[in-house]
Design a protein that fits this description.
alpha+beta; two-stranded antiparallel sheet; two-stranded antiparallel ribbon; 4 strands
Length: 81
């Protein structure tokens, strides 16, 4: 299929037919990458099991911040509650 690039502000876009999206099982989100100079559109990676992994990490104490929390200059001098 050949289509035109549409101008959307400073960006460009294309319209894909619903039938094409349904054949690829695309719904609300897609993943877009560039591979060998081509734009590749695919289904987002499955995140099943993440919640259980986060719970396991919390139980084992492996969910601590790696960097120390530091307030910014704005937070220290200009922010008011």
């Amino acid at each position: 299929m050949q289509t035109e690039l549409l101008t959307m502000g400073r960006d460009k876009g294309i319209i894909l037919p619903t039938a094409m999206l349904e054949q690829c099982n695309f719904h609300d989100q897609v993943e877009i990458n560039i591979h060998d100079g081509k734009i590749v559109i695919s289904c987002p990676k499955n995140r099943s099991g993440w919640e259980q992994e986060f719970q396991r990490m919390a139980c084992s104490g492996d969910d601590q911040l790696l960097d120390e929390m530091t307030a910014t200059d704005f937070e220290q001098n200009e922010w008011s509650w």
